[in-house]
Amino acid sequence: MYKFRIGAGVRRFSVSALRRTSSSGVKQAMPTSGAQPPQGSSISLKSATRDPSEYGTRPIYLDMQATTPTDPRVLDKMLEFYTGLYGNPHSSTHAYGWETDKAVEEARANVAAVIGADPKEIIFTSGATECNNMALKGVARFYGKSKKHIITTQTEHKCVLDSCRHLQDEGFEVTYLPVNSDGLIDLELLEKAIRKDTCLVSVMAVNNEIGVIQPLEDIGRICRSHKVFFHTDAAQAYGKIPIDVNKCNIDLMSISSHKIYGPMGVGATFVRRRPRVRLDPIINGGGQERGLRSGTLAPPLVCGFGEAARLMVQEYDADQAHIRALSTKLMDALLSMDHTQLNGSRIHRYPGCVNVSFAYIEGESLLMALKDIALSSGSACTSASLEPSYVLHALGADDALAHSSIRFGIGRFTTEAEVDYVIQALTERVKFLRELSPLWEMVNEGIDLNSIEWAGH
Ligand SMILES: Cc1ncc(COP(=O)(O)O)c(C=O)c1O
Ligand code: FES
User: Annotated region Disordered: where (predicted)?
Assistant: First the structure.
């Protein structure tokens, strides 16, 4: 029996409830999910998941790229630091400091082990946004006197792109590499873009919108042969695909805890020691974290993150099998519908992120019709703007297709029943919305939409 403590009370979940295996070999979820596939035609279904907790009835959660639910085992670890172990890990004169420091160092070792790093190469931060700022601005500013050029890609997360824009204001030159229609970069273009004054290449490991995995080993080899530092934003990749920082010649890596069932507000930057990468710190102060990131660490967050990292290793095979099985089921069902397409490479992809376009439907109307499923039509921070995704544009998608795309995120606690529900809901509602669409009517009448001259544009 596994204890899950909240406040003064103790709720008990059995480990088998966390990881129950169904007859099909597909793992069942956390005790809170009880989605049932709808009976018969159910276009007006309003609720999907009966949550026995105090939160009531809630939609099915399929937005794992925005964030992942905290693993109860992680919360258990964190609670120790909100109760007994409250010392400042930087207090070196008494036992309160020593015990917390020991736990922080264990967490550091767990975070390092996932990527084959030395614990000394792990710098704790507030999350991957800070890591990306720290890596890009830190390296650029340290080497900037002689090296004023950075290479990145057009499909990076906003925090990489925005850091680059700021560096341009400081006088740096940035090359934004295009991607092919499958979302992958062209390695020849990368090599050609490297100049004598290039200080850094920054290419993300797994894309947060389309799940495409970039060829890290090839990129690392090219960077090392040109003596240019290689940074990768691995917020969506860390613990989910195998990455060895030495095999891939990665010099800096950004990691986020809340994408691996850990707490929000904490992350880590891997900074290589041999050959040494120098950084100009963006946060100055008491010199914590080898002088690269000052400020008192948050032991509950850091140790929760360490536990989440340890669990990513422990659960790797089970997570992979579970996520792959559900992803294949979902993808096969959605792509068997007419006029749907998978965005991004079919081969080089993390299966827990499935991005599909439903032609002749507005993604936003579809999201409205799917209120019982928590989904996103793109990245969480831009979904409020209703702008079509710049990532899908970089792949060559036109506005209409980019607008009709939805991202499905599957994770450790997603159940097969939830996926079955989603498949049925999507099938019914896409059909329903298309029946309302004049474009769909024209397509069915055999009219070539490209031949139409639209008025008023
Ligand atoms: C690829 C990528 N990079 C960076 C981030 C930002 O991470 P954090 O929320 O830890 O700042 C995210 C999260 O959305 C992401 O998906
Ligand atoms: S929060 Fe992940 S894309 Fe903005």
Answer: 21-59
260 Cα to the center of ligand 1, angstroms? 12
The fold adopted by the segment(s) 19-58+315-451 is Aspartate Aminotransferase, domain 1 (3.90.1150)
Our answer on whether the CB atom of 377 is closer than 6 Å to any ligand 2 atom is no
CA 309 to ligand 1 center in whole angstroms: 16
Instruction: To the nearest 10°, report the CA torsion of 39, 40, 42, 48.
Output: 20
66 lines ligand 2 (CB under 6 A): yes
Query: What residue spans define the domains of the chain?
Result: 19-58+315-451, 74-314
Averaged over successive runs of 10 residues, the pLDDT of the chain (457 residues) comes to: 34 37 38 41 47 72 96 97 94 96 98 98 98 98 97 97 98 98 98 98 97 98 98 98 98 98 98 97 96 97 98 98 98 96 97 95 84 76 62 87 90 96 95 88 83 62
Model confidence over 387-397: pLDDT tens digits?
Answer: 678 999 899 88
**Residue 67 CA, ligand 2 centroid: distance in Å:** 9
Fold of 74-314: Aspartate Aminotransferase; domain 2 (3.40.640)
What gap in Å lies between CA 246 and CA 374, rounded to an integer?
38
Domains 19-58+315-451 and 74-314 share a fold: no
Report the predicted TM-score, pTM, of the whole model to 2 decimal places. Answer: 0.88
